[in-house]
């Protein structure tokens, strides 16, 4: 799949139809500019490239397209300043900054008050190199050589994309896809400096005993969103809600076998379950046995039942 769309403004004159941009993964809406500007988008099957140049450009990436809400977005600013905002906050980007926005259904707004030149690239997360979730809306550390090489390739590919030559289109697809995957790989090591998932798991281990405690409390303590927490946990192959249930179930199992004087209701309350019935459902899910069956010795939980 390949298509290209161009749109420009010159004073009050419009060149091209801005609604055609909605048909690409960039899915730009509410596009406006204070002066002459031009936008060009090249759409491939796995990714889309965009080039923008002008003054006072404002737009919204709606992500209403069939795949755009699942796409990674990289923005590379060569000239000027751009404010990029999504549901997690606002990033102020300057010359040679690279920003990353992760998959979401929320809109992303762009505001460039002064003259600006930038390129952007989306990437289908189904692509192998993009299959790992990345923390939303962040800047990549400065890497001048990487920026200049990547920008030069993406800008040239977008502005000079061929209209008919199948061989050249295939080559551009491969080159630009490799660039997008390199950006993904460059952003992964930064997660070691922001171990959101690790800190969230530590909080779970110290506060799971309270039935009123939830993942929302973890998000508030870390001053982030539940969505961000779950994405960070996905990097470790875990779900925080499952980890919370496992902590409570492990603790309840210990109390059931070592504290016979406690009632099932007391065990549930001491383990962070809202009621004995909630604990019973957790035991059925993990052991296929009830707490009463385990305590009475009718069955015992196999050692490997809990990870």
From TrEMBL:
UniProt keyword Transcription, yes or no: yes
Organism ancestry: Bacteria, Bacillati, Actinomycetota, Actinomycetes, Micrococcales
A family per Pfam: HTH_18
Keyword Repressor in annotation: no
Organism: Pseudoclavibacter helvolus
Keywords attached to this entry: DNA-binding, Transcription, Transcription regulation
PANTHER family: HTH-TYPE TRANSCRIPTIONAL ACTIVATOR RHAS-RELATED
Top-rank taxon: Bacteria
HTH araC/xylS-type domain ranges (all copies): 198-297
GO molecular function, one term: sequence-specific DNA binding
SUPFAM superfamilies in the record: Homeodomain-like (SSF46689)
Record-given protein name: AraC-like DNA-binding protein
